[in-house]
Each structure stands twice: as C-alpha cells, then as structure tokens.
Amino acid sequence: MRVAIIGAGVIGLSSALCIHEQFQGLVPSLELEVYADRFTPHTTSDGAAGLWQPYLSDHGNLQETLWNKETFDYLLGHMHTAAAKEMGLFLISGYNLFTEPVPDPSWKNIVLGFRNLTPKELELFPGYSYGWFNTALMLEGRSYLPWLTNRLTQRGVKFFHKKVESFQELFSQGVDVVLNCSGMRSGDLQPDPELQPGRGQVIKVLAPWVKHFIITHNLKSGIYNSPYVIPGSEFTVLGGIYQHGNWSEENSAKDHKSIWDSCCRLLPSLQKAKIVEEWSGLRPARPSVRLERESIRLGNLQAEVIHNYGHGGFGITIHWGCAMAAARLFGNILQEKKQLATPPGPRL
Amino acid sequence: MASPKVAVVGAGVIGLSTALCITETCPSCSVTVLSDQFSPNTTSDVAAGMLIPHTYPDTPIHRQKQWFKETFTYLFAISNSAEASEAGIHLVSGWQVFKSVPKEELPFWSDIVLGFRAMSEAELLKFPQHRFGQAFTTLKCDCPSYLLWLEKRLKAAGTQMYTRKVADLWELHSEYDIVVNCTGMGAHQLVGDKQLFPVRGQVLKVHAPWVKQFIRDGDGLTYIYPGIHRVTLGGTREKGSWSLSPDANTTRDILDRCCSLEPSLQGAQDIEVKVGLRPSRLCVRVQREVLSQGGVKLPVVHNYGHGAGGFSVHRGTANEAAHLVGECISALQGSSSRAKL
After folding, report:
1. What pLDDT, in 10s, does the model give residues B140-182?
2. Considering all CA atoms of chain A, what is the largest pairwise distance in Å, rounded to the nearest integer?
3. pLDDT digits (tens, 9 = 90+) for A212-251
4. Which residues does UniProt assign to the signal peptide (chain B) (predicted)?
5. What separation in angstroms does the CA of A123 have from each of A10, A81, A126, A130, A272?
6. Which residues pair with A34 in a beta bridge?
7. Closest Cα to residue B107, out of B309, B318, B315?
C-alpha cells in the first residue's frame, strides 16, 4: 500500500506522521512517500510566526473549532515532555486588542486563562478600548518541521524533492492513495476557484525584551490587516498584512513601512529593535478547509485522493485535528479496499 | 547654602536610584556617588529584578505598598517607551503556585500588578504538586542594563562617580554637607548595624529563550524568571551565610527544582552561577540621622536593608530618601541663617 503525500509544510508532514503512527502496525506493507518542491525552511509554514490562535469567528464551522481544540490539546500534552524544546513548542501569553467590545471567540475555553483586559492594561495600548488576555502556545515551524521530518525519517518514510504536476503522475507509478497537502499551489493540481492567496508580509526583528504576543484587530479591514507582534524563541515577528488575491511573494516597501510604523506605534520599545529578515508568503485561504476524499477514475482503476488544504492563516492552529481527520478518511479507504479484496460472490 | 554637596555611598540599585532622585528634587545639589563596587559587581547585578514585593515584617504595609506603587508606576512608563530596551525594563506574565492554599490569597500588591487573578483549574494541571496559584503580569528589570542606564542618566545630570572604599562616614564630612548611606550589606560594617544580616542567594542564569513566562513557588525558594537575554533560576535563602562562593550541590538542586516546574529547562544551555547576599532587615531603614563628633555635625540619610525586595521598592525608597535629603538641606539652611544673626 503506497501512500504519497504532496506537500511538506505543516499539513503534509503532520498528516504523514499521523497516518504512519495509526496504520503502520495494521498495514504491514504501508509505504509513505512525501513529494514537495519546497522543504523547510522554505515552506509557508516556516514563515509563519507559529502562534496557536484561530480567527475571531468560526462562522458556525464547528468542525474547524473542534480540529483547533484537538490541536491545542495535543500540543499541550507535549508541553511537559523533553521533546517540547526540539519541537519549537512553548507557552506564551498575550493580548488581543479591539477598538470596540466584541463577542468572545469560539476558542475562549480552549486556551488557558482567557479573560478581558483591565482598564490599567488598556492604558498600555492607546486607541484600543477593549481586549482579551490569554495564554496560548507557540509552535515554531522552523523547529517543528525538522522535528516532524526526523520522526518520519526514523519511521522509514521517504522524501522526494520534486514538483508533482498531476495526481495521475503518481498513480501511474503505482501509488495507491494520494494526500493532497499542497496548500497554496493546490490549484496547479486541480483548479479550485475558492482557493485564493491571502498574502502576508512580516519583518523579523531582534527584540528579546518582548515576552507577550500582541494582536490588534480592525473589524473593517479584516483579519491580520492590523498590526501584530509575536515573540519567538529567537526573533520577534512583526506583521499586519492580509491581501486577498495578491500572488506576489516579493517584499513590498510600502507594506514594510506600514508594518514598521504601526508596530512601533503599538509598542514604542520596538523602535530600538534590529531588523534581521523580511519575508512574504501566501496564506492558502478558502471559505472552509477542504478536507475530503475524492475518487478518481483512471482507466479501470479507482484512485483515491484525500484533500487537506486551504488552512489560510490558521494552519499551525488546526493542523493536528486535520491530520487526524485525514487519517480517519484513510482508514475508510483501507476498509473499502479490504471489502473489494474479498473473494468474488454473487456477481458471477 | 548655594549648592549643597551630597555624597551617596553605594552604587547598587538603591545608591544610583537615590542619587538620581536627589538630582531631580534638588537640581542645585552637587551629587557624587562613591562606591567600592559598580555594576557588574554589585549585589543588584545578581538579582533577577522582578517586581514582586518582599514583605518586611516591621515596616507598615501602607508604606511598603506606596513604595511598590511608585516603583511600578515609574518602571511601567519606561517599559512603554523607546528607552525600554536600553533601561532593561519589560513586562512579563506568569504564575505563582502554592503547594497549599496560602493564608493570604490576596497579597497587598495584587491591585498594583496587572490582571491579578487566581489560576484556573486547567492552568493548575501543569503543576500537579501545587493546589493553588495566582496569575498576573508584572515588570522585570534587567539589572546590569538598568544600573548602566541609571549611571548614564546621572552623568547627564552632572553627577560624579568615583570608585572609593568609604571605611567611615566621617571621612566625608570635610568634602560633603550631607551623606546618603546606600551601602546595602556594607552598612553592617560601616555603621555597625547589627539588625542587618545577609540572606545568601545563589542563582543560575541560563540560555533558554523559549521560556516567556515566569513561574514562582509561593515559598519564594524556587523561581524561573525570564529576562531579556537569560533566564534566572533560583534559588536559596540562607540566613546568616556570608559566603559568596557558588556551591555545586546547590546548583544541582536549583536545576532539579526548576526543571520540575518547567521540564523544558532540561535543554537550557550555558549555565552561569551567581551569588548575592541580600541585605536583610526586619524593616527597611529609610531614616535621617545627625552624627555628632567633637562639636561637628554630619547629616546622614540612611537608605538600606531592602533584603529580597530591593528592585520592587527601589524608586519609592529613593523618593523618600531624596525627600529626607531635602529636609537635611532645610535644616542646614535654617542653622546657617541662625549662625549669621
């Protein structure tokens, strides 16, 4: 049973690990292969700051809220292990700021210690009159992806540095199931008008005195189009750009100025921070995550694709819940294939 | 008295902040700082610099609260300015956990720090040996940076600073009008204060930049305080010990205790061991005194004995000491005008 995973970002690697962990014992002939044209540190997941935080509203998509919760609980369970540091996993507290009162988010009981900000705390942020404080998790892609890669390599999963041009290409080589975790470039494999880039740009600085994340919200401009500051283990990420439909991965001077000015206004101590890096990436945005099976007829063969893409700006936040859902779909495929393998019956 | 000459003895956080307050409240004063040690060799340099007050048994609580409030307000403004990184001041959130519910669930400073509340059940799950906890946000001083920043402000205000061991306050009476005694543990010898005693503290400063939250055991013995570049792991409270040499068994013990609160610290690198003697007293001595010898008078303002709470109350006690210096000046001006009559 050959399974090919297309994509080596957080979605591809975690889906591969989840499937291998669950089924390797049950399907002795299970062979996993990861195909990608970009590996860490060049994936979208590497550019993200790595803060676990869903969007403000799940728009009634309870499925996604559940996947977010599963991810948080899974990560929290790893917090006490020696692996946490290697995974790039740590606890972090911080602020979400608004210019008006807003309803509590779907994730208020998932994170730790969620509460509203006190008047004294709001004094720190002139221009913002309402906000939340909570403790969440950071999962840095630059550590997590190598950690996942190591776990997969130890399990005998093979990696191929190759751009897959079509699902057919893999099936014709004898692959039985394909996991499509190709994020932003899914459209190259199968057109999907619902998948659009949500372009982001970030400035990475040295500001080790910043110990909290600060995410501001402008309900009119939309998510991540308002300054945010997220301290990592080495660098602090400054951001606040979300451009729907913009495919450019080039850094923009205008966006740089907007991020720098707005973040320094938010946190004056940043004026002395040294800029280390600048990066642009494309959030694979979709009205909802595409996590479903697709059976493709290829001659007299039924080929199975499991789609797992379109995680927008919350890939890290939702990844493990999605990996487990993908593994369940894989389980269904295994069940069905076993049934197909039963001896011929009444059909004769 | 046109330009009173004030000598501040001691260049730890108390000496430097007191000198700075004096330059602010008495611009006509000529202030000189004298100390046998300057940063990075003071007791303050060893401290983690967390703004979590120590309760002095014999100082009225309202006075301690006032000191803490003034210090917190002062540093809060710096942390929110472009000077924050140079001064080494930043906000930090975290938890204080208790193995058994403390008598006082609401300490006197709970309304001065930010967002003080009891920890939730879910948060306490992370600490299986602890049954109660408090979550809050406070400030931390990166001590060596803060002392350097104070020195810079003092120089800009025209303050002279000299390395000099003062063995007797009377040495200073011919050059200075008023002496301010901020000698911390040195006051034991310098003014013979037998109520002052050392409480030895050993700490580890480690590289663990993924630790963003503080964790403190309510017993005050085990703590993890993330600073700008290093995390301070502590500690010990050895009353009466004068030893400044690091102890290897203590190092092992501190690491074990901290790792049980935060297992990821097993991956901490680059461990530096430091020792400081907290200049402890049942009450902080912020007090005026006029020394007298052979008809000569020497006004002295004492500001020492802050023990484990120096950083938490430093600006408040510096303000009070500067105020007392003002009183000394008025008294001197009063007596000199009487002398003229």
Report:
1. 999 999 999 999 999 999 999 999 999 999 999 999 999 999 9
2. 80
3. 999 999 999 988 999 999 999 999 999 999 999 999 999 9
4. 1-19
5. 37, 38, 6, 11, 22
6. A5, A159
7. B309
Contact A269 B228 (CB under 8 A): no
Burial class (CB in 10 A: 0-12, 13-18, 19+), A58: middle
Low-confidence stretches of chain A (pLDDT beneath 70): 339-348
- What residues have CB less than 8 Å from A152, skipping those under 6 apart? A13, A16, A17, A20, A32, A34, A159
Contact A91 B90 (CB under 8 A): no
Nearest CA in chain B to A272: B82
End-to-end alpha-carbon separation of chain B, Å? 15
Helix orientation angle between A10-23 and A141-154, rounded to the nearest 10 degrees: 30
The answer on pLDDT for B292 being more than 50 is yes
Residue B263 and residue B256 in contact, taking contact as beta carbons nearer than 8 Å: no
**CB–CB of B35/B11 below 8 Å?**
yes
Sign (positive or negative) of CA dihedral A12, A13, A18, A24: positive
SS3 at position B13: helix
Write the DSSP string, B288-340. EEEEEETTEEEEEEEEE--GGGHHHHHHHHHHHHHHHHHHHHHHHHHHHHHHH
The residue of chain B nearest to residue A264, with distances taken between CA atoms, is: B82
Residue A95, class by beta-carbon neighbours within 10 Å (0-12 exposed, 13-18 middle, 19+ buried)? buried
State the pTM of this model: 0.94
Q: What is the pLDDT of residue B340?
A: 58
Whether the per-residue pLDDT at B337 is higher than 80: the answer is no
pLDDT greater than 80 at residue B26: yes
Residues contributing to the annotated binding site of A for FAD: 37-38, 44-45, 49-51, 164, 312-317
Cα A262 from Cα A256, distance rounded (Å): 10
Indicate yes or no: CB of B90 within 8 angstroms of CB of A84.
no
At residue B26, φ and ψ (nearest 5 deg) are -135, 75
Q: How far is A220 from chain B (nearest CA, A)?
A: 27
In A20-63 the beta strands, taken as DSSP E runs, fall at: 31-36
> Taking CA A311 as the corner, what is the angle to CA A305 and CA A177, rounded to the nearest 5 degrees?
15
